[in-house]
């Protein structure tokens, strides 16, 4: 009996062992699930500069981005970056994420793929930056514009790229790239400047005479036939349905604002120059109370600098400079970031989010997103650093 009992005990122990290991096999997946659940965070606020995960727990990869609001959903488009210096070129394409609350973003995949065809303008290894998508109510098409540099040509091509889709999240079909407004003078260009014989190489750079010549269209004239240079850019659809691209042109010395044609896939031929010789990059724009506000950066590559702002009563100007919108600590370096987009929060009055990139050119995939609320003070945008904040900030101020 004693023996039987012992046997029973041994059998029970072995059985317990198997059951335990069996269960532990199951249990082993539990912590994994828990870990996964833990990394799949639900956000209730913004945390500028911190790692920001999508709803799968993967770090959001959408740099130099912009946002489209369509039928109750926000779509965030940005450059998909990869690790290491090669990530400063386009290895994948434009990534899209969707959100209803602006805090939690679902991965919608690659909206525009770079091409495997070496002859394509958007072949893998080109530079494809700052994608922005706008919706055309007449054609029901989603139109993506971006800054394109041809593979192996550094930043010399300075072209505008355009792609279209029937669905917000894509896939987008690349249409073409171009230099805007070839053979057309800007609306705010003096007649006498058209015929000036001054050439860029006849003047020493950065001298007062050169600066004056830049203001008087030195590079507009040089690029008149081939079309204007197009680098850092944003897109904007006005309340009347007319769409515009705002971009760094003329060797990044002058911004241009160009109206798009009715289907948004080309230029209408109407464009102006803004802040000639002002050296603005990273343009972002919003409309508040019938006025247009612009926030830009200076021109120091990936390194941060002081932001600038401007206001106009008509999108084509006159634009008036308003100075650095950032205040407080680190405001002279835009909190270590560079403007990319200004997002109007749907359904809220006077609620605009300043979106900015903290670049990491050595490991571009680890660039961070800086989203901060814009506060209007005496008709001037003001941006302050926040460690964390949420949309209630707009109503509680
Ligand atoms: C920045 C620009 C970026 C990228 C970079 C390349 O000034 O804003 O989009 O073009 O230069 O150096």
Summarize the structure.
This protein has helices at residues 2-39, 191-194, 208-215, 218-222, 392-395, and strands spanning 63-70, 73-80, 93-99, 106-113, 127-136, 141-149, 159-165, 173-178, 233-237, 243-249, 254-260, 267-274, 281-288, 291-297, 308-312, 320-323, 326-327, 338-344, 352-358, 368-377, 380-384. With 397 residues, the protein is of the alpha+beta class.
Q: Overview of this structure, please?
A:
It contains 5 helices and 21 strands. By secondary structure, it is of the alpha+beta class. It folds into 2 domains: 1-34; 35-395, 5 Propeller (Tachylectin-2, Chain A), CATH 2.115.10.20. The strands form 5 sheets. It has a 5-stranded mixed β-sheet with strand order 17-21-20-19-18, with no helix packed on it. Strands 1-2-3-4 form a 4-stranded antiparallel β-sheet, with no helix packed on it. Strands 5-6-7-8 form a 4-stranded antiparallel β-sheet, with no helix packed on it. A hairpin with a 2-residue loop joins strand 1 and strand 2 (73-80). The longest helix has 38 residues, at 2-39. The protein starts with a helix and ends with a helix. Mean pLDDT is 92; it is low at 9-38. The structure holds beta-D-galactopyranose. Residues 64, 129-130, 232, 281-282, 301-302, 338 line the site of beta-D-galactopyranose.
């Amino acid at each position: 009996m004693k023996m039987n009992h012992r046997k029973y005990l041994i059998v029970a122990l072995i059985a317990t062992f198997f059951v335990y290991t069996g269960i532990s096999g199951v249990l082993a997946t539990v912590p994994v699930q828990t870990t996964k659940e833990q990394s799949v965070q639900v956000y209730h606020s913004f945390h500028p500069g911190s790692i920001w995960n999508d709803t799968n727990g993967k770090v959001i990869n959408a740099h130099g981005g912009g946002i489209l609001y369509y039928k109750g959903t926000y779509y965030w488009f940005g450059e998909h970056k990869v690790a290491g210096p090669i990530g400063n070129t386009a290895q994948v394409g434009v990534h899209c994420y969707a959100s209803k609350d602006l805090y939690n973003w679902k991965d919608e995949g690659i909206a525009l793929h770079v091409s495997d065809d070496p002859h394509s303008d958007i072949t893998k290894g080109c530079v494809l930056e700052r994608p922005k998508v706008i919706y055309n109510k007449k054609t029901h098409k989603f139109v993506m514009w971006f800054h394109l540099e041809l593979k192996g040509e550094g930043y010399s091509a300075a072209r505008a790229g355009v792609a279209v889709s029937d669905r917000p999240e894509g896939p987008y079909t690349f249409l073409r790239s171009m230099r805007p407004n070839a053979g057309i003078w800007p609306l705010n260009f003096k007649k006498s400047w058209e015929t000036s014989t001054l050439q860029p190489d006849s003047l020493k750079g950065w001298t007062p005479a050169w600066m004056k010549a830049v203001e008087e269209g030195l590079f507009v004239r040089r690029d008149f036939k081939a079309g204007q240079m197009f680098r850092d850019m944003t897109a904007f659809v006005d309340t009347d349905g007319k769409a515009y691209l705002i971009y760094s042109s003329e060797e990044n010395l002058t911004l241009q604002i160009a109206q798009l044609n009715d289907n948004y896939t080309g230029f209408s031929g109407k464009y102006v120059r803004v802040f000639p010789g002002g050296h603005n990059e990273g343009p972002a724009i919003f409309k508040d109370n019938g006025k247009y506000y612009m926030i830009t950066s200076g021109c120091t590559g990936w390194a941060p600098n002081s932001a600038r702002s401007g206001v106009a009563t008509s999108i084509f100007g006159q634009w008036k400079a308003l100075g650095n919108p950032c205040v407080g600590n680190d405001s002279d370096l835009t909190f270590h970031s560079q403007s990319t987009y200004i997002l109007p929060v749907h359904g809220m009055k006077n609620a605009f989010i300043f979106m900015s990139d903290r670049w990491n050119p050595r490991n571009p995939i680890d660039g961070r997103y800086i989203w901060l609320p814009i506060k209007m003070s005496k008709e001037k945008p003001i941006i302050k650093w926040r460690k964390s904040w949420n949309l209630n900030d707009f109503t509680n101020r």
